[in-house]
Request: fold
Amino acid sequence: MSFEMKQLGDVTVIDVEGQLIVGNRQELKQRVLAELDAGRRKFLIDFSSTGYIDSSGLGVLVSLSKKIRELGGELRLANLNEDLRTLFELTKLDTLFHIAGHRDEALASF
Amino acid sequence: MKRTAVVERIPVPHAVAVLLDRYRSAPGTAEVRLWAETAAGRACLYPEAAGAEPWAGSAHYPIEPLDGVPLELELRRASRQGRFLAQVLSQLVTQEMDARSAARELSERYEEINLLYFISEVLGSMLSLPEAATRILSEVADVLGARRATLWVHDAEADRLQLAAAVGDDGVRGSLPVNAPESATALVFRERQPLNLERGALRPSAARLEPPPRRSEAFLSVPVNYTPPQGTARTVGVITLVGRRSNVRFSAGDARLLAAIASQIGAALETQRLLRESLRQERLVRELELAHDLQLKLLPDPGSFQAPPDVAARCAPAESVGGDFYNLFRLSHDRLGIMIGDVSSHGFSAALIMALTSSAVAIYAQDANPPAEVLRRVHRALAKELESTEMYLTLFYGVVDRRVGTLVYANAGHPHAFRVSADGRAERLGATDLPLGMMPHDRYGEGTTGWAATDLICLFTDGLSDAYPARAGRAGEQALVADLVRLRARPLPEILTELFGATERVVLTVPPDDRTMLLVRG
Reply:
C-alpha cells in the first residue's frame, strides 16, 4: 500500500499500489491536499496497480474530487480494473468522476 | 608518650587481656603495662589498677592501633620476650579489628536484608501504590539515615515525572517535565545514571535539586528501572534521598542499596501499571460488548415477523459495532418495506451514523412515503452530519406490494441487491442514485420490478461479497449470487447459514468488513 507521485507537465500523477483502504486513505488525502496548497490543480490517479478499494477509499476519492473542484481544479481516474470499474458503475460513482481507460487518454483529456 | 591524662576508658579486647594475664602469671616474666595515646592524652589500659608513674629503664614496644588509637606495650625491664609479646599482641589487635569490622558489616547487611524483606512484604500486600511508596520511603530513609526522600513516577502519556510519595517536609509537589534542563531528577531519569553529590556540591547541568538540600546536605538520586522478563530495562521513575543524620555523604554502598530497592519499586510500579491497564481493558471490553448488544437490538428480529412473506437476516459487525444495518416495515395495504444500508468505514463513527439513519428511515417509511421520497428525506436529515464527518452510506429501500405483484425501490449506490425468480434468474436491482452524503442531491429515482410469491429478494453488503470465495475466475459477488440461485428453494435460515459459512472458511486478502444479508420470500 503506497503512493507514488510525479509531475507530467502540469499534471500531478498519483499511482496507487495495492489497496486504497481505511488504513492508507488519509495519506493519499494529505499528499493531494499538500499539492493543492502548492498550487497544483490537475490530478490524475492511476489505479493500474490497485486491486481493491474499500468504502473509505471511495469516500476519500469523493472528498478529494470535491476539494479539487472547489479550487477550480480537475481530477481524472485511469486504469480501473474490471472489478473496480463495476464497483463505480454499481454505486453510480461513475457519474461523479471522469474515468479514462488509460493514462494517456486521461492526460489528453485535461 | 610523656603526658598522661584521665581519658574515657577504652575497653581492652578480651583476647589481649587474657594473653597479658597469662604472661604476668608466668614465672620469671617482667611487669607489663599497655598504654593508649588518645587525643585527650596518654592512658593506661592494662592492668586496670596500674599506676601511671614512670618506670625507670623500662622497654617500650609499639602495638597496632585499636579503633585508630595507637597502643604501646611497656615492660618494666627489657627482655627477649618483649618484642615477641608485642608482635603477638599486634596480631591479636588486628584480628580484633577485623572481627569488629565484620560484625559491623554483618549488622549493616542484616538491616539492608531486613529492609528488602520489608519492601517485598509491603509491595506484596499493598492496596495502593502511594501508601506503599510512602511506607517504603520512610524505611529506606531510616536505614540509610536520610532526612527526606521522594519517589517520582514517569507518566508516559504526559511524559512527566509525577511525585508519587515524599517523606519529610520539603515543599516538593506536583510534576516535572522529563526534558526540564535544570532539574536533577529529570537528568537522572533521562541519563539513567545515579547522582551522588558531595555536601553542597552542584552539577552545572542540573542546578535545581528536588527536594532542595538545606545548606550543605548530601543528595543521592537513582533511577528506578524495570526489566521485563523478556526485554531490555527501562526507567520508570526516580528515587531521591536528601540530608544525612550522620552528616556524611552517601557512600557507593548506599547508592547500590538504593538502586536495589529502586528495582523492586520499579517492578511494583510496572505491576501496578499493568493492573490498571488490564482493568481498563476489561472495562473497555465490557463496554464494547454492551455496545455490540445494543446495536444489534436496533435491528428488528426477523423471527418475530409473521409470515407471509418469510424473512431472515443476519448482521455480523467486523468490530464490536459496525456500520451495516437492515430494517423491515409492515406498511398499510399488506405492503412490506425492506431496507439495507452500509455506512462507509466501520466501528463507532459508522455505528452512530447507522443508528441515525435507521431511525430516520423508520420515521419516513412509516409515513407510507414512496421509496424515492424516503431517501430524499433521509438524505436531507443526515446531510450535515455526513458532511461534517466526511462519511457516506449506500442505502436500498424497497416496498413489496404482494397484492399488485410489484417491488418499487430506490437505491442510493447500494451495489448488492437482487431478485431471484423461481426459474433461477437473478436480476440486479441497480443503483438509482449516488450514495447518500456524496453530493448535495434532492431528487431520487425509483425502479420497479415484478414480484411473485416464489421470488426471493436478497440484499447484502460488500463485507460479505468481498469475503466470499471466488471460484473459476468469478469474483466474490458472482460466486455468491450463483450459490444463492442454487439454494433459492431452501428455507431462508439455511441459505443464510450456507452463505455466511462460506465466508468463514476464507483467508481474507482485504481488511475485514461488516457482513449483512436480508432475505425475503413469499
Notes: The mean pLDDT of chain A is 89. Chain A is about 40% helix and 30% strand.
